[in-house]
Specification:
mainly alpha
């Protein structure tokens, strides 16, 4: 996330999209204001998913495939 993002709104968004409970989110990483190559920053930031279960990996990959089909 960037310094001008609202962390609570981002967590609400990603929790709703992923159906992951808010208390399962780690502390957010804030990008320092540096000159970058992006012309437009992401409205909802980015999400990094950590897992340690093969069944969960299969489910995540299934979600990604479903999402890609909708594009």
């Amino acid at each position: 996330m960037y310094p001008d993002h609202d962390e609570n709104k981002l967590i609400d968004f990603w929790s709703r999209v992923t159906k992951v409970q808010k208390q399962n989110f780690y502390k957010s990483f804030i990008h320092l204001k540096k000159k970058g190559t992006y012309k437009k920053k992401s409205l909802y930031g980015t999400l990094c998913v950590n897992y340690s279960d093969k069944k969960l990996l299969a489910k995540i990959n299934s979600w990604i495939s479903e999402y890609k089909e909708k594009l």
